[in-house]
Amino acid sequence: MAPAYREEADRLKIAEKLVILNGRAVGLLTRIYNIKKACAEPKSKPTFLGDKTMESAIKHIVKKFPVIDLRSNQSTFSNVANQKEEIVKSLSLYYYTFVDLLEFKEHTLQFLTTMDVARCHLDITLNYELTAGYLNLITNFISLMILLSRVDDRKAVLGIFNAAYDLSNGHGDYSFPRLGQMIIDYENPWRKLSEELGPLNRLIHSAIHSLCAVYHRRNVTAEMWRSAQILSLSANSQQLLYAAQTDTIACEYLSLDVMDRWIILPSIVCHNFLLSDALILRMWTLALQMGLALRIFRDEILLLHPTILGFFEGNKGLGKRIQEVKEAHAVALQQSPAIHADRRRFLRSALRELLYFFRDEPGLLGPKILFVWMGLSFSRDEVLWLIRHSEIWPSSKKTGSSAKAGDKTEELSDKQLPELLYYIEELRDLVRKHAQVIQRYHEQYVVSYDAIALGELLDQARTKGLQNDEAQLLQSFVRDISLPGSLVEQMLALRAKRLDWFRFQALTSMAKFSFDLSLCRPLADMMNTTVFHLRMIDQQEEMLKETSDLSIYCFYVRTLERHWRQCLSLPTSCRYTLAFARLCSHFASSLHEMCPEEKSHVIERSLAMCNSVLDELCETIGGVIIHLWEHELQLADQTSATQVAQQIVSQVLRDRVKASKSSANLPQTDFILAGEESQRLDRHELTYQDRRQTTLIELCCAISSVKQVVVAEHIFAPREYLYQHLENRFSEMVIRAVSEDGSTPRRPSQLLTIIYSYMTVLQNLDAAVTIDVTRLFSSVLLQQTQPVDGRNRETITAIYTKWYLEVVLRRAATGQMVWSDHLQAMIGNGENNVFAPEQYTDPSEMRALVQILGPYGVKHLSERLIWHVASQIGELNKLVISNKEILLLARSHFDQADKMREVASVLSFEPKDSKKNPGAISSTTDAILQRTSIIGQIFSFRDAIHHALRHVLARRLPFLISSYRNLYESVCDDTKVIMAELGASMGEETLVDTALVNAVRAQTNSISPEEHYQISCLLMVAIAISLPRLADMSMSIYKPSIQAALNNSHCVPLAISTLGSALFQLHGKKDIIQRMKEFLALASSAILRCGHESDVTGGEKRPLNFLAILLDQIVTKSRYLTADVLETCFPYTLVRTAYLECYHKELTFVNS
Where are the domains of the chain? Predict the structure, then answer.
């Protein structure tokens, strides 16, 4: 070749321009696409286009475009003039994008003409990079022009910007005339493209013609793939360790979707010349028979047959072509869904086999990596076809083929698509995981084989006309790759080496070049193979994007959502659900540096979609768990005492009726015995619960398939999603289970059964997916022991505490319930109770409540109880202060009957309005007794809770309890008081109620210690001298069978004992025993005086039996009083007599 021509060829820089123009074409496609979407949506459309004040100007611009006369229509453009700066600023991005498109069009056409003039020879099997780059440029250019013609309001945007620019600068933009002409020309893009690309048909023909062998090898049925055993490593096990390669290695994983675009789009534009070639016509017809739509860009598609028919019908002499298109359309409607569905079936099995091989032997990724790229590329093509056609496939009404409409719908919905997507993602992860294996293998292969073979082939090329100065590119290429250990270190230089080969292709493809590369095809094949091996070293991510990028889902959001929801609904495919979350990591690959404004939108969409998939998956798992929990709860109910009692009653009724003649009229009740669900006659027969359990295992397999999903530099941990979801659902379930009707909560034992059933299901879940179930239980149940949980919501502790305080104890205070010391539970007193109180307060229910609330919850409940006691003490203190003088008199003259009679008269005085208001307390004595009785009820309930806590802890933590008790018994009383708070938290009995001490101390900060001490002493005096008043109350009758009085006055001794020790411990005078003895003396004196006065006056005898029993229980329940002390001030004979008479009276009443 002449040196002058060589310099001219170098100046053309065909390789560099192809790379730059193709990159710019994709960037412009992205920008035009965003403009089209923005103009199509009212929310994102430029505000000026929807402004009513601009409407007349916009109409004028669109009508007269591109000629806009501002001077003659100043009134029309007055609003534009007022907002000219805002318009220019707002629409400049839109306008200059179209200007960039204009410049790109001019540069592209100029470059294509240059290549045509240079008479380049294009062959995809020979100079792959050059031919592929040229065809990409042609199709990208056509796509750009088609997309331009679809932009709404393009005339309005360009015209109003130019008008505002003219009003601001005194002249329009210099590019506007040419830009306006381009917009007008491409109103009908196909006609204009045909005019501009028609003269270049020779070069386009040579490029597409070279695709013939490759395309026919790729576009075949799955049955041909099976017969050829393509993608199978086991078919030829002897060659398993040999490198997989062909003479056209770069074409093996070439996308069929890309080749369809290369064939169809140029053939439409240059139909006269290209379709006259039988081979190209055959490829074109086959492409039209394989589908109804072609990708333009992202979700912008071209409906092939209507578009082609519309274009051809406007041209004469194309009747035959029109008929061929119609026939191809009919074939596509009938056959293409089945062909593609069969391909997907084959690819599922093929990719599964590859995945198993490479998982077991990752070293095979080195020699057999070509199989991975082929499998991924073939699969990606089929997924793209399905996404594209599932939205636009005509219904049976339009096609008129209702008989097979169901089959076509089934093939287009493809319920097994998630499995194929899963294998694609798994293979991608394997390539990333073992990237160094692939890299190291191909580095050694290039150095040990490719470099040597290329050196030999280069020497042969010199004998066929390759000059030394022309071979410099390849010589430097061979020299650099032959250095051992340098390829990985010089990964950045490998891109330059591949560009050298691209330059060599461009140089040798020109007609005037002296060396014909086609005469040295082995050299070209070897160079293409070496370039592929070099790409395995430094471009593995680019290869993954080229062969398996599914970012198209970012623009088919509803399709993606439909696919993964369908996947979740099918037990056979739900284990592959997480593949859709992993697909969201592909979305970022659709971004382009020329359109940075869409980055945030795409990233947000990918994160939101990934989050939605994970949330829905966890929701589905939660729903299955609920079904299994309901079944587990039914099994637990079968072994409950209630169910067993019903079965016993039913059996007794049957036995009785069997002896009678009316057994046929007895309704038969069939009870399911516990364990019957485990009886099986056939192991293949699955129950509903078996299927739900299988579904749960499949869903858990989906969650555990990957540890984390990385999307846009965000890490999603599926197991943590599941953990948080289960934690929230468990917490919500527990709260919902507390109450059935929203008012009365469940019995604690029932709630505990519900919680245990749910925990059983979650423990079984741990066998299917590795999550920390223990941490889950601890987190949720510990939160439920607090008044509010981590989300500031009401907990079980708060609900039960509120209910027991505001319902149970309040009703007990009004006499609707009675505390039974014998049953250690509240029992109903009358028929006004809407629930049975013993079902909520008996020892077994208290133990269940303690297990639910835990020590923290019991402590909170106790604190609330003590708070109520403290408020009652505050009210008692007010009564003491108001009667302070009379109580001081009673304390100093308790042995003088006249003085005490005067005291009793004052304290028993009833206000005049007490009779008008029956609900009001009639006297001070009644008020003192009622509040003391309420305090006793609260302490009785609190002691029952503590006893239950002590029982549960002794069973669960026996060593801790025994250690505390040993320590407690070995210390002095003062130390025992110090240990009281520790003991109370464990439910142990203590000398002093420190919680009450602290509560009273908090209420008396404003009172001096001496004054409060005096009030405390007088309070005990007031209670002591008020006890005889109980003899006048009709409900103060002791019932030995329940060890209670119907007005709960039997709770007064516990209140006195607890109050006395707490109040006098508060002052630290260490006189608790003296004060309690003083109280006993006052009480016994008042009781004896009451009985003596009844005998002396001869009036109605007051029932003193209950008072004697009360006095005995005061001593029994006090740690500071003994029977000896009682004997000194009250004859114990009266106590024995009182008990005996009460037993006799109740026995007489029962017998009567």
Answer: 12-210, 434-548, 599-649+688-784, 805-909+921-1151
